[in-house]
Amino acid sequence: MAGPTVSAGSASRGDYDTLIDVDAEGVDLGETDLEFHDFHTGDNVQGKIPAGGQSRLYEPPLSLENDPNRPLSIWTIHFYAQFFNVETSDVMQRCIYALYPRVSFVDTVGDNPDLYGPFWIASTVILVLFFSSTLAGAIASHVAGVRYEYNFGLLSAAAALMYGYTFIVPILLWGSLKWYRSEHARLLECVTLYGYANTIWVPVALVSISPIEIFNFQTIANVVRWASAAVGFAISTTFLVRNLYPVLNSTEAKTSRILLIVVVLGHMALAFVVKLVFFAYSIDDNSN
């Protein structure tokens, strides 16, 4: 805004003061001229972001999944991902401990029981049982001189058997322990124990193929199958009892004995089902 002009001939000291006064009073110092604009950029990570600003789309607060102090919801993937936080070497080592139950498996696992091993082992046993049963049936049919018919129902039976025994039975055991007020019963540890206990059925199924049956030694082949099932039952039962006994013993004496007998009988039933459903062949009629 331009101030009033003063001629050169009349520019006295008083006029000069008047000129300055007029300029000071006449200048418009409105908010528009003195407003400081704050330009936010994407690189600015300090200070508070105004509510409703677009920066929230690109700079969200710490996610709930990465906050260790906030419990995860069972409806999120991150809740179940923590149970699969194991390395392949850890799973293989635990499988070895299940095959040679000389040390406490619970102490070895510590605070990191997992679901990856039980699921992977159960899936492997299902495929191995179906493959071994199919191959053993083909051998028996070849010896009998009849055509072998593939039975894909065995695959469904193996899946129902192994997945059910790996996950449903431990849940029932854990529920029983909670019912009898056991303070040491943990569901994830029960599932982990039963899952790794099934490792033995992989070599049992492979041994039960019994190629000696090709030479018409059916009786010997059947003895080998029963023996392998018995060994598998003995090793896996020892593994289960050794690691479950401290938990079972936390209940009353009578209750712990009953639960121990139930665990052993349940595992014996599994061994019989594996033998009779998947490896009971007859050369005469090729029946399962």
Helix-strand blueprint:
Elements: H1 13-26, H2 31-34, H3 77-81, H4 88-99, H5 105-109, H6 116-144, H7 153-179, H8 187-197, H9 201-207, H10 218-248, H11 253-278
Helix pairs in contact: 6-7, 6-8, 6-9, 7-8, 7-11, 8-10, 9-10, 10-11
GO cellular component, one term: Golgi membrane
Protein name: Protein YIP
Transmembrane segments: 119-140, 152-173, 193-212, 224-245, 257-281
Architecture overview:
With 288 residues, this protein is mostly helical. The chain has a domain at 88-278. Helix content is 59%, strand content 0%. The chain contains eleven helices and no strands. The longest helix has 31 residues, at 218-248.
Short description:
The chain has 288 residues and is mainly α.
Q: Give the C-alpha Rg.
A: 38 Å
Give the overall shape: globular
- The count of DSSP E runs of length 2 or more, i.e. the number of strands, is 0
Strand content: under 5%
Task: Give the helix proportion (percent range).
Answer: 55-70%
Q: How is the main sheet built?
A: none
- Which class best fits the helix and strand makeup? mainly alpha
Number of helical regions? 11
Mean pLDDT: 78
Q: Please report the distance between the alpha carbons of the first and last residues.
A: 106 Å
Q: Please mark out the parts with pLDDT under 50 across 5 or more consecutive residues, or reply none.
A: 5-16, 42-62
Order of H and E elements: HHHHHHHHHHH
Domain Yip1: 99-272
Pfam family, one: Yip1
Membrane topology: Multi-pass membrane protein
Family: Belongs to the YIP1 family.
